Amino acid sequence: MEQFKTAVLGFVSLLARLMIAAIFLASAIGNKIPQFKATADYMASEGVPNPKFALFGAIGLLLIGGLSVIIGAWTRFGAIFLLVFLAAATWYFHDFWRIVDPVQRQLQSIQFMKNMAIAGGLLSLIAFGGGPWSVDGWIQIKQEEAESSPPAKARPAPRTQQAA
Asked: Which residue segment(s) compose the domain that 117 sits in?
């Protein structure tokens, strides 16, 4: 029964990591990298300071964080990277509280709330890690096995012959 529970937990946590990371990797690979100049120009129009430098940083956070979350290696750090990106993107691009037009305000409010939901998923990864089907989970299992196994017997020191 314990193996079944671990398998279900592993599968669900892997699926969750894939689903959360997909939006970030798609954003970097499908939009920000191939449309670098247009994205930097848009960032400048939204008031992002030093937009080209910020875009390089954003792409780095997206790629490193997304890949880390998918494979489950340093999952918590990867989720933190994605959370930093998400917080900055939400602040600059979904600031519904500054929009006067009611239609645009509603659209940006929805985008803001979507980002809050994604942030909740990232906080969950930070709190609980990548699960048993992750590199982090595999390392934890190996550490627990090493700690629970009895220590190896010490071999007696080899005898040396003394000169008579």
From this structure: 2-137
Place of tokens 């970097």: 28
pLDDT bin (cut points 50, 70, 90) of residue 148 is confident
> What pLDDT, on the 0 to 100 scale, is given for residue 145?
87
Residue 61 lies in a domain: yes
In what helix (H) or strand (E) does residue 66 lie, and over which residues does it extend? helix 51-71
Q: What is the C-alpha separation between 1 and 9, in angstroms, rounded?
A: 12
> Is residue 146 situated within a structural domain?
no
For the beta carbon of residue 7, count every other beta carbon within 10 angstroms.
12
How confident is the model over 56-114, as pLDDT tens digits? Answer: 999 999 999 999 999 999 999 999 999 999 999 999 999 999 999 999 999 999 999 99
**For residue 164, is it within any domain?**
no
